[in-house]
């Protein structure tokens, strides 16, 4: 009996110890994981009330058991039978609290991971925001033209184009007036009398007419070819030099071909086409030149083809071949005159600017910078038939 009493007493003490331990751990968990909502606060209050009730009931039953137990020691209160339902309820409360604490711990870890992820995303967004702000600052530094300003500028461009066309028209008219004046000057400067090339007004290709047509080429075909070349060459000087080189090349080719044709006609006088042993009479030489003039219309297509081929020009702009063909035509008529018309374009830079020989190109001055159009003479520098065009300057560049 004594052994049974000791076993029962040990069990009761063990149960009391477990209840104290559960109560302590529960309080520790409550302090470690504070309740974050009204519902959790209600549960906390409920659990605390239930634990106090269970503990009070256990203490009461343990006290009554000491008083009522038949094997109690003298002076020891007897205890009644232990209610296992209250202990189980307390244990269940403990397990619920522990489960809730574990859930909160997991949620806390998840929250930490979420905070870390959001922190990284926030840093990325901040970098993107800083970059966008820098881009906006850079874009605001670049001036932007208002559409109304663009429209106004386009209107001004159209007005300037109209003024340019009008100025070009006036320029052509001025060239025509100048050519008319030059023709009068040429007529006064005829020094060679009795020459049909100068006195025969019925000849459409007489020297005065050739000089006039050469000046017109500079006013029309030259300007149109210049507009086409300026799209290819980088500078205006390159364009003027190219156009002058094409004209002078045609001049040299036509002089050579005209002389070759006269020599071929002279050889035709001999039956074996060999050079004549004696000089050709003057009348025969004049007849050969007249032959060249009368057959010029038939010869010109071949002359133009030869000049174009020799120059080796490759272009799709129609103004270029028109200019070259016109130069070839006039140079052929120059070469078959008697005496031939001569061109002068080799003027050294720094030569005094002679206004009797040259007109100013775009700049005037006391000295010649470069020639853009040659001077036309009758014979070897005897009479000026048409003035050339040269760029002038006042002092060394």
Proportion of β residues? Answer: 5-15%
Placed side by side, the strands forming the largest sheet appear as 2-5-6
Q: How much is the average pLDDT?
A: 76
Q: What does the overall shape look like?
A: rod-shaped
The main sheet comes to: 3 strands, antiparallel
Number of strands: 7
How many helical elements? Answer: 11
Rg, Cα atoms, Å? 60 Å
Q: How far apart lie the N and C ends?
A: 139 Å
Secondary-structure class: mainly alpha
Question: H/E order of the elements?
Answer: HHEHHHHHHHHHEEEEEE
- Estimated helix fraction: 55-70%
Keywords: Coiled coil
Protein name: Mitochondria-eating protein C-terminal domain-containing protein
Walkthrough of the structure:
The protein has 397 residues and is mainly alpha-helical. Among the domains are: 205-338, no CATH class; 341-396, Nucleotide Exchange Factor Grpe, Chain A, domain 2 (Roll). It has eleven helices and seven strands. The strands form two sheets. The chain has a three-stranded antiparallel β-sheet. Strands 3-7-4 form a three-stranded mixed β-sheet. Residues 35-39, 65-83 and 188-194 have low confidence and may be disordered.
